[in-house]
Amino acid sequence: MNSEVTYSIVVPVFNEEEVIAVTYERLKKVMDKTGRPYELLFVNDGSVDKTAQILSQICQQDTNVKLINFSRNFGHQIAISAGMDNALGQAIVVIDADLQDPPEIILQMIEKWQEGYEVVYATRKERKGETFFKKWTAAMFYRLLRSITDVDIPVDTGDFRLIDRKVCNVMKNIKEKNRFVRGLVSWVGFRQTSVEYVREKRFAGETKYPLRKMIKLSLDALTSFSHKPLKLAIYLGFLFSSLSFLYLLFAIFERLFTPYTVPGWTSVMATSLFFNGTILTILGILGEYIGRIYDETKDRPLYIISSKAGFGRGGESHE
Predict the structure, then answer these.
(1) 114: burial class by Cβ within 10 Å (0-12, 13-18, 19+)?
(2) Dihedral sign of CA atoms 2, 38, 209, 191 in order
C-alpha cells in the first residue's frame, strides 16, 4: 500500500483524548470520498493523557492509520516536521486535531492540487470562539512579519495546508531547529494558492497554544525570516548615542554659561535608567539570535521517536 499512497494527512496531537476519536472519524469520512489510497499519520507529541492509547486502538482497527510517538514533548512545529519526514503520499495535508480547521476543506485543497498548484494554504476569513486579544495580536503579528521579511508569508493563515511531494522532499532537507513551518513553506516557493474557510470553535479541551507558546512561535518566526531586528538595534544605538552626546553638550553649556546647575540626581538617574534599559533591550535582541545560532551548532536531532504503529507489515516498530 505504501507505494500507492496518494494522500497523507499529518495530524500533530498533544493531550487530545477528548476529541481525537471524533477527529479520526471526520478525517476518515472525508478521505474515503476521494476514492484514492491515503494514510492518516498521527504524531503524538508526548501526550500524558490517553491520546496514545486511543490512537493505538484506532491503528489496530484501521490499516490506513499510522502513529508516531515522541519520547517527550518536542513542540507543535517539530511534530509537523516529523509527520512530513514520514509521510508517503503524493500530496501531504497538515491539520490540527482540535477540529478548529474543518477536515472537509481538504477536498477543496485537493481540487486546487489537481489543477496544478503545489502548495494550497487555508486562509481564515473568520475565527470563531477566540478572544478579541488573540484575534488582534494574531492579525498584528502576521502583518508585522510580512512587513519586515523578504518572504511572502500569507496573512491570516496557519499550518493547515496541502503541499506536493516535491515540496515535502525539499522541506525534509531543511534542518533548522527553531522552526516556523508555514514560513518555510512560503520560503521554498513553488506554485501556491489559497482556499478560504471559517475557523470553528475548539471542539473540546483547552488550547495547546497559550500566550507563552505564541510568543515563542512569534520569536522563531521573526528571527528565522528577518535580520531587521538586528538593524533596529544598531539604529537605536546610534540614535541614543547621538541624544546622549547632545545632552552632554547641553549640560556643559549650562554649566559654563548659565547660573543653573542640576540640584540633584533625578535627571541623572532618569537618563541612566533610560539608556541602560535601551542597552538591555538591544542585548536581548542579540541574545535571541545568538541563542538560535547556539541551537544550530549543537546539531541535535529535531525529535526522538519512542515507537511507531501501523508502519509496514509488522504493525509496530521501535526506534
Answers:
(1) exposed
(2) positive
SS3 for 80?
helix
How many C-beta neighbours within 10 Å does residue 11 have? 26
- Predicted TM-score (pTM) of this structure: 0.66
Place of cell 496573512: 155
Closest CA to 14 of 55, 41, 51, 56: 51
The C-alpha atoms of residue 260 and residue 125 are separated, in whole angstroms, by 62
What DSSP designation does 75 have? -
Beta strands 119-127 and 7-13 are unpaired
Nearest to 96 by CA among 50, 159, 32: 159
Nearest-angstrom CA–CA distance, 291 and 298: 11
Per-residue pLDDT reduced to its tens digit, 188-226 = 888 888 888 887 765 455 555 555 656 665 666 565 655
Q: Taking the CB of residue 246, how many other CB atoms lie within 10 A of it? A: 10
Distance CA 114, CA 103 (A): 18
Phi, psi of 85 (to 5 degrees): -60, -30
From CA 108, how far away is CA 263, in angstroms rounded?
Answer: 73
pLDDT tens for 53-77 read: 999 999 988 989 999 999 998 888 8
Helical spans, DSSP H, in 226-306: 228-257, 266-298
